[in-house]
Each structure stands twice: as C-alpha cells, then as structure tokens.
From TrEMBL:
<feature type="modified residue" description="N6-(pyridoxal phosphate)lysine">
    <location>
        <position position="265"/>
    </location>
</feature>
<keyword id="KW-0963">Cytoplasm</keyword>
<dbReference type="InterPro" id="IPR015421">
    <property type="entry name" value="PyrdxlP-dep_Trfase_major"/>
</dbReference>
<dbReference type="InterPro" id="IPR005814">
    <property type="entry name" value="Aminotrans_3"/>
</dbReference>
<comment type="subunit">
    <text>Homodimer.</text>
</comment>
<comment type="pathway">
    <text>Porphyrin-containing compound metabolism; protoporphyrin-IX biosynthesis; 5-aminolevulinate from L-glutamyl-tRNA(Glu): step 2/2.</text>
</comment>
<keyword id="KW-0413">Isomerase</keyword>
<keyword id="KW-0663">Pyridoxal phosphate</keyword>
<dbReference type="GO" id="GO:0042286">
    <property type="term" value="F:glutamate-1-semialdehyde 2,1-aminomutase activity"/>
</dbReference>
<comment type="similarity">
    <text>Belongs to the class-III pyridoxal-phosphate-dependent aminotransferase family. HemL subfamily.</text>
</comment>
<protein>
    <recommendedName>
        <fullName>Glutamate-1-semialdehyde 2,1-aminomutase</fullName>
        <ecNumber>5.4.3.8</ecNumber>
    </recommendedName>
</protein>
<dbReference type="InterPro" id="IPR049704">
    <property type="entry name" value="Aminotrans_3_PPA_site"/>
</dbReference>
<dbReference type="Pfam" id="PF00202">
    <property type="entry name" value="Aminotran_3"/>
</dbReference>
<keyword id="KW-0627">Porphyrin biosynthesis</keyword>
<dbReference type="InterPro" id="IPR004639">
    <property type="entry name" value="4pyrrol_synth_GluAld_NH2Trfase"/>
</dbReference>
<dbReference type="InterPro" id="IPR015424">
    <property type="entry name" value="PyrdxlP-dep_Trfase"/>
</dbReference>
<dbReference type="InterPro" id="IPR015422">
    <property type="entry name" value="PyrdxlP-dep_Trfase_small"/>
</dbReference>
Amino acid sequence: MSRSEILFNSAQKHIPGGVNSPVRAFRSVGGTPLFFKHAEGAYVIDEDDKRYVDYVGSWGPMILGHSHPEVLDAVRRQLEHGLSYGAPTAMETEMAERVCSLVPSMEMVRMVSSGTEATMSALRLARGYTGRDSIIKFEGCYHGHSDSLLVKAGSGALTQGVPSSAGVPADFARHTLTLPFNDLAAVEATLAEVGQQVACIIVEPVAGNMNCVPPAPGFLEGLRAQCDKHGVVLIFDEVMTGFRVALGGAQAHYGVTPDLSTFGKIVGGGMPVGCFGGKRAIMECIAPLGPVYQAGTLSGNPLAMAAGLTTLKLISRPGFHDELSDYTRTMLEGLRERAKAAGIPFVTTQVGGMFGLYFSEAEAISTFEDVMASDVERFRKFFHLMLEGGVYLAPSAFEAGFTSIVHGETELRLTLDAAERAFARLK
Ligand code: PLP
C-alpha cells in the first residue's frame, strides 16, 4: 500500500470522506487522493516522495509557484510580531490601497477569510443596498457554499430556484434565479419580467468551476447594460480570475466594469483570504458605516496580509501576465498537437493563466451543455495516466487548470511527454 492509501484510510475515521473539501476526495476521477507533504516551485511532492508538475496550484492561489522565497520571508518576518491582533494594522490599509489601485472599480474594499465569505457578504450588501431579495446566478458557476448560492434552476427558471444541497431551505433558494451561462436573451427576458425584485447578478466572468468557459462576445457587456437598465447590482466573482487572467482581473481583460467584485485565492498568496469591494456608495452601506452587518475575527489577518501583499507586488512586474499566458498557450498547443497525432478529439480553452481540457468533438466550448457533452470517462483515464507520468491535473473534468510563473521549459517537456504517452494509451 502507498503512504497516500494508508493516510487516506486513517483520514476517513474522523474526517468526513477523509477530506476537508469534497473535490479532494478524487470521487470524480476514482482512486485514492494523493497526500502531499511538500511543494516547491512548479511541483508538489506526495507522501511517497513522488514529484508532480502541478496544474492545480492549490486551486489558483499559487501563481508564483509554491514556496516563493520572498513570500515565505514576508510571512516569517510577520511571524516575529504575532499571529493575530483583532485590531487594525497598517498592512490592511496597504492591502486596500493596492487592491484598489490594481482594480480601479474597487473604490473601497473589505478583507475576509475565504472566497465563500466574500461572495456571501457581497450578496447581503447588494440586497441591503437595493432593498430587493432576489438574485440571479448562472448554471455551472460556483461562488462558494453559502445558502443563497447552492441553488440550481427549478423547472421554470423564472419562478423559483431549488436547493442544490441538502440543508438549504427551499424558502431561501426561491430567491435565487439560475440562468444559462452566456445566454443574454435569458437575462433580458427574466429582468423584463421580475427586474424590480432583483438585487444583483453574480457571475464568474470566466466560468472556472465547470472546467473553463470564457464569456461569449458581448455577454459581460450585455449584463452591464441590463443591470444599468433595471437598477441591479452587477457582481463579478473574480475569486478565480482576479489577478490571474490579467493583473486587473477579468474586468480589465474584457473591459467591463462591475459594481462589486469578489476576490480570493491569489489575494491571499496561499493563506486563507478573500475580499469584496467596489463602488463607494454601495460599500458605505456596510457596518460600521451603514446597516449591512459583516464581520470576522481573523479578517485582515497579519500573516495573510503579508503573504498576499508580497504576492500582489511580485505579480505586478511588467510582462508577468504575458509570460504566464505564453506558457499556458504553448502547453495547450502542445497537448492539442499530440492529441491530434493520436487521433483523439480534444479541445482546449484558455484565458491567461487559466485553462480547460475537454475530450470533445465540439468546435468550441461556450455553454454548460457543451461541457456536459464532453467525454468524462476519457478524462478520468487521462487524469490517471498523467498522474503516472508525473503531472498533477485537477481531479475533476469540471475544474479549470492553473499555471504558475515558474512553469518553464522543463515542465513543458515533462507535461508534453507524459501527455504523448497518455494519448497513445487512450486510443
Ligand atoms: N468563487 C469562485 C469563482 C470560486 O472558484 C471559489 C472557490 O473555488 C469560491 C468563490 C469560493 O472560495 P473559497 O473556496 O475560498 O470559499
């Protein structure tokens, strides 16, 4: 038995499913999850001392690669001064200034401890600001696990959403309308009917939780126009795309300005951090300035601010995001060439340092249905063959992949060699 198998067996005694977040359990790909004990640069190292080129990057934060020396030093320096004060620090102001300067739509920002908290708080704020209860989200988008957001479309989308998790009250879910991603006509029709009840539209500007689906041309612009028309708050959930697809996030990449944005992952540099912010007039509704309550014992935690600020400084150097994007493009081109040579239908998507892989005959991937039509069984086999070849992909056909700035020539060769062997065995 491998060490990972032994550890997974013991983990299941006291941790539900042996994991602290479901996707880690490898249920979508089968087999035993790898237990890691170390990570450096572009690699994760498992308990059996096997090294893998990492395309998960802790689900997005590790854009600089693992254990970046400057990030670790910043955390070590802060460590000498204590772990948490529950009182304001100079670093929080520095962080707020940096986030607001990198993302101009952010006039004010509040730090929290996860992406879930960021989106949950942004929704409450939008509801408090507008005095409306309903929200619109899109099928296949994930915004964390708060009650309002674990909802799928009911039989008539215009009427009511239904919970997608046990424990979410139906009374709550009915305020969430779920529409098809990239379908502006559905948004127009819904707002024409119930626009006066809708507090906000929340969207992943690049959908990264149903693999990786870029917005159709005009979709984000259309959302902006519809929100303006109906007095609805537009929220970009940039927990995944923020500081990754461009320094200024997807809103900079696509040139569409939301009212509120949520961030996580990179903004904490690998520590538990999220934040939300946007228009001053909306943000001023938050306590202690306004009536919308929101708080957190560890919000703005000094260690987390040290890791996040250093990460944001390092990724702000000119050319950083172009390099990240270039590696990603070259790697995906290499994968497509090898799949083609092996006669395997294979499609990729990419926005900057974020990508999707599909075993599919489709020309392009732009809807939830396109994603669902891909060959998940083939992905499962590919995933395990790549693992055997020393490459760690996201253990699900419905998650985006991430590259880091330290993925280079060596990792490219390792990845493409492993893929060539994997494609040959998939035939
Ligand atoms: N929003 C998006 C777009 C995400 O991808 C995620 C997590 O992957 C979240 C929100 C929730 O963030 P967290 O897992 O930090 O709670």
